[in-house]
Amino acid sequence: MTTFWSIWVIVLTIACLAICFGLLVWNLKNYVGVEENETCGHEFDGIEEINNPLPKWWTIMFFATFVWGVVYLILYPGMGNFKGVLDWTSSNQGVLNIQESKDAVIANADKRVQLDKEMEAAEERFGPVFQQFAKQDIKDLATNEEALEIGQRLFSQNCAQCHGSDARGGQGFPNLTDNDWLYGGSPEAIKQTLLHGRVAAMPAWIDALGEDGVKEVTAYVLSLSGRTVNQKDAAAGQTKFAMCAACHGMDGKGNYAFGAPNLTDNVWLYGGSQRAVEETLRNGRAGVMPAWKDILGEDKVHILTAYVYSLSQDK
């Protein structure tokens, strides 16, 4: 906020407080020319107006609220660029990435940063719990009710935005409750995905195939999962599928190393209609799974891995 607008806000705030205080004091005095508790001479539907003073409890509460408001504005930030005499803030403002956030925590260690203090308190309380679970095997944790409850909360806070609260995903976001995995569904593979993230590398093929080639390869790809297609187009598409086989394999069953999906199981991340597959071939896909190592830390990722792994296992 610029200096001008900061001064503007401060002046308006003080003016509003002064006006409110003045109105209260003014209303404590009798200006109507009628003694207190006497009638003002007005009557409405049998209801007579009496010149009663403000209730003392109301007046006292108003003054107390006013005083608290003034004290609050002095102690805490609330007026323009004034930061308050306590130098308190709810969080480190202006950070753009995780590293800047960490640097700000160190730089503001002697200040009253509410979020930092809460994070420190939470780490002191729950850190040993996470560390204890992190020493256990993921498959064992996948049957540990306490660990799964923690994992579910971590999932709800960090993963449900994309994969859904039920972990069944949506278009462009994998279903985590089945056994169809792009990079592998073993505990080790899931943990690797969570720690370091994934970046899709499905290129656009329109320049290499042309519109006719896209339709032909689409027909062949759909035929791999037993779909009814134009056989002539599928046959032509099969000859062009060689350029896809480098990632998906000659049999179209995919490759965990590249995150290339299995094209024979009729499970589709971006939709399995002819139009959706054509769009994928024409424009490519560039999905991104963020890395959680620096955000959650390895101990929490370990527990989250156990929860995600448990979702696809038979109970």
Automatic annotation (TrEMBL):
Annotated transmembrane regions: 7-26, 57-76
Keyword Transport among record annotations: yes
Family matches, as Pfam families: Cytochrome_CBB3, FixP_N
Pathway stated in the Swiss-Prot or TrEMBL entry: Energy metabolism; oxidative phosphorylation
Subcellular location: Cell inner membrane
Superkingdom to which the source organism belongs: Bacteria
Family in the record: Belongs to the CcoP / FixP family.
Quaternary assembly: Component of the cbb3-type cytochrome c oxidase.
Protein name: Cbb3-type cytochrome c oxidase subunit
